Amino acid sequence: MPKVVALPGDGIGKEVTDAAVAVLKEVAPDVTIQELLIGGAAVDAAGVPFPGEVEAAVTTADAVLLGTVGGPRYDTLPRELRPERGLLALRKALGVYANIRPVRVVPGLEHLSPLRPEKARGVDVLIVRELLGGLYFDSNRGRSGERAHNTMSYTVPEIDRIARIAFWAAEQRRGHVTSVDKANVLEVSELWRETVTKVHEEKYRHVTLRHELVDSAAMLLVSNPTRYDVILTENLFGDILSDLAAVLPGSLGLMPSASLGDGPGLFEPIHGSAPDIAGQGVANPAAAILSVGMLLRHGLKRSGAANNVDAAVSLALRSHPTRDIGGTASTQAFADAVLQALSTTNVSA
Ligand SMILES: NC(=O)C1=CN([C@@H]2O[C@H](COP(=O)(O)OP(=O)(O)OC[C@H]3O[C@@H](n4cnc5c(N)ncnc54)[C@H](O)[C@@H]3O)[C@@H](O)[C@H]2O)C=CC1
Ligand SMILES: CC(C)CC(=O)C(=O)O
Ligand SMILES: [Mg+2]
Fold it and tell me: Which residues does the record give as NAD(+) binding sites (predicted)?
């Protein structure tokens, strides 16, 4: 029996994970779900954001479903005790170096995008973000007096392995990779560009490769999103570009993700704990539920169930839009609409 560990975390994490877990139970009743604390909730209960027993449970699971961590209450904690550090430690413990963030405007849902329908139509981008390196992880960091520093450093093997994931993904899609860096200024981006080019020349000449600088890529991603198929980039740039890309389908609440390595995968919405709406029951759980779809597809290899979840979410977005996308449905009402759609046979997008 497959085991999934669910880590709701903080803020709206609990609300959207409850909805996602209900969907997982509906489509995969044989899966055992163990719910544990992470982030601020774990600090409150155990004094640390990523307790040892949680590490033991996730590393022996088949997949991990995460909500969100963080919140104003924890912002004054010492940095190593902050919820966000717990999340980084979780990613590290699982060795999930490849963060896959699909950005899709579902046909018929163009009206949810703030872009004109003709711009939004057909948007289908896969952001492949390196997740265990760069500024977030380098140990050369610190503060002293009036000075502080962080370091962006990458090695060839780190770049090589994420580049292979992006080219592999492009092979299954439209065959185009855009590698995004800042090679006009940063040495680390120079190495990034050289390594990506080498992987391309060695094995993936049948996929097209274009290099872009991150500043103008940000502009093009919004003004001409259909020029992109797979975007390959490092940790910080990928974090920023993917929140920006959430504008394309219409909300952060529509953006799921999968983080993959050699062990159990981690599946989570890309948004944060949304303190401004937490506790009101209005968060959009679509990203968390679509993350269950990614868990089924990539973590449990159940693509039929994954397709059903995706289709049910599309139906619920039409019938029960939440506040962030111009509707009035509550988190619970949206989740119920997804469950209702799943209970009808022949769900299709
Ligand atoms: N993976 C994680 O657990 C992440 C945690 N965070 C943490 O979350 C906290 C808040 O960060 P923010 O910068 O405010 O980003 P955020 O993503 O939490 O919220 C940004 C805006 O989007 C809205 N929003 C986000 N998700 C939504 C949803 N599902 N439905 C409807 N509206 C939604 C929020 O209400 C807010 O107006 C911070 O403590 C931050 O460190 C931030 C990003 C990722
Ligand atoms: C909260 C951070 C650790 C990361 C983040 O914003 C993200 O991965 O999207
Ligand atoms: Mg982020």
Answer: 71-84, 272-284
